[in-house]
Design brief:
Chain lengths: 201, 201, 201, 201
Amino acid sequence: MGRRKDNSMFIYPEEYGRLKRGPQVVLPKDIGIIIAYSGVDKNCVCVDAGTGSGWLALALAKICKHVYSYDTREEFSGIAEKNRRMLNLDNITFKTGDVCKGISERNVDLVTLDMPSSEKAVRAAAKALREGGTIVGYLPHTEQVRKFADKLGKAGFSGIYTIECIVRDILVRESGTRPSTKGVWHTAYLTFGRKSANKTQ
Amino acid sequence: MGRRKDNSMFIYPEEYGRLKRGPQVVLPKDIGIIIAYSGVDKNCVCVDAGTGSGWLALALAKICKHVYSYDTREEFSGIAEKNRRMLNLDNITFKTGDVCKGISERNVDLVTLDMPSSEKAVRAAAKALREGGTIVGYLPHTEQVRKFADKLGKAGFSGIYTIECIVRDILVRESGTRPSTKGVWHTAYLTFGRKSANKTQ
Amino acid sequence: MGRRKDNSMFIYPEEYGRLKRGPQVVLPKDIGIIIAYSGVDKNCVCVDAGTGSGWLALALAKICKHVYSYDTREEFSGIAEKNRRMLNLDNITFKTGDVCKGISERNVDLVTLDMPSSEKAVRAAAKALREGGTIVGYLPHTEQVRKFADKLGKAGFSGIYTIECIVRDILVRESGTRPSTKGVWHTAYLTFGRKSANKTQ
Amino acid sequence: MGRRKDNSMFIYPEEYGRLKRGPQVVLPKDIGIIIAYSGVDKNCVCVDAGTGSGWLALALAKICKHVYSYDTREEFSGIAEKNRRMLNLDNITFKTGDVCKGISERNVDLVTLDMPSSEKAVRAAAKALREGGTIVGYLPHTEQVRKFADKLGKAGFSGIYTIECIVRDILVRESGTRPSTKGVWHTAYLTFGRKSANKTQ
């Protein structure tokens, strides 16, 4: 039953703090949207870049077959590795490397990009993905969204689609029910695309 | 590879329409939040009520061990069953019955409630859940949120937490980048709670 | 030209801090919505309760003929009076009193209510308003919205209408354009109604 | 009393339809924010471009001393003029002309720009404004926001500030209280700036 406790890692905000985090992490709201919109399942193989504190990679590993997580910065794999052990997950491989220069894996179902200049990794991602596989860019700024979406179009992706997910906390108290006065307004935009048949080379 | 295509069911809005839907379905945005915040994984067993068109049950089945989905209305299991076959999932059991009167399963990891008067199912859900398991109410109105949250408190749940998830479509066009002028503003509030040790009887 | 400087009081957030404030003030976003949705102009007479720090009363006085601002708590008129002098406005009358027990003015164009149990002031507001005049409740909680809207209906108001105004700060920086990560999520709901002919007694 | 009825023009959505409208109008939510954040009052003179259907110009005329409203397209002044007569306002002057080529007025308190390439009108607006006067750009796309904000900075404006105002309709019904499922998500961003002393030439 020990492992069972790990299931609750994403009850937010109570227990989220158990995992180590660097300065920036992908929050559960965006992790949830990536999972639901990409439709990944138990049979899926994912590539994630960059690793950061590993929250997205770990969340994907909990529900997918295997996750390969790349980061150019070696120091991050330490934090992510600690988090991996804490969650007792053995289906995740941390790799130090630059996905813009190439992704070794092939026929993967999902590539997630949370890194500067994500648009530079689109070609490598297209090679790594199976037909119909999903690419997702995690993009804080609108200028990045435009560059990334434009690059997806040029690389032959279809169903290019950008959303922003906003989660409001609702307080239910003796004094009444209302949204919290303050909260996280923005993390990043998520831009999705699907690899089409016979369009990328 | 046939099954692989099913992975893409949640690229929204392009392919969502493949599944049959009744008048109301739980949208991917809320499905994603339920998955990420409850932290369910490949080892989890879930109970879902009501089935409706089965979208939430099917999404959970894609990533969990088994899903038991209840509905009092027999006509819905037909739609949900068609959707189950389309997605080729065999780890979901549709049951006709009222979860307010009892849930047969025990030691489950997640109970999701999308039904009128969800608060009446809290006691049965508490019995079905393992310690540390998560309950989620999908609640369109604020009055329901209050009733449900109050009932969770009385039934000994901890970490009671309500959110609203809003997804904005962002248009990236030749003329410029901006949020879509119109969109889905509200589906339902999600109220979460966790079964605490030694608190429910 | 001295007075001219006062015009800029509402450039937010730079200069808002010039005015004294108590623990709670009506923010410019809500002031703007009240002005635009009620359609008040230079010929209008307004009643405001409660005064608080006077921000709403002062903003209305800047554009209307006269404002009568009530508060049951005498200590607030001091802060509001200081703010009135700072803005050099002479068309505002601060009154200590409970609007639930009666409003002396008649034929007014707008009654704004920012106080506990606003619904108890609806009858008095109906007497004070001209036909077609607007009532606005500033209501933090959903339970208050329901009580207030119900009371408006019983008192014969028409066009009963509730909104929530959310203002997001957008950052435009060298690094890119994006919404601010944090901000004010919620102040209060605004419920509007119009006094109909021959319906209130 | 005839004029009094006009006060209610902005109760939205019930009576908004009384005025003629072209394909695009500035909605009351944005009008309210412009009024509250610029702090205009009864003594203010405003310049507005482009006129369009005149909604913004008319709303400003209701509360300010005088409004000069420019549009390059002559056909719009017809609609705006009809609306002016319907509201019985005599303190508004419609002008056909391109504000990018110059604004005749001087020492004005507010310049509002709702037109393509608003950034091209910034220099002329700076000349027209008094020190401390406010400029507002109504800008649908993020690319326009960046261009406009950059231009304000170069032209010596201070307090440059961008917001997005979102108004959610809240339904209060027998069945419960909740946000409307659909609504207007986006109209435009509003970028504000103030003319500083000794900075523009």
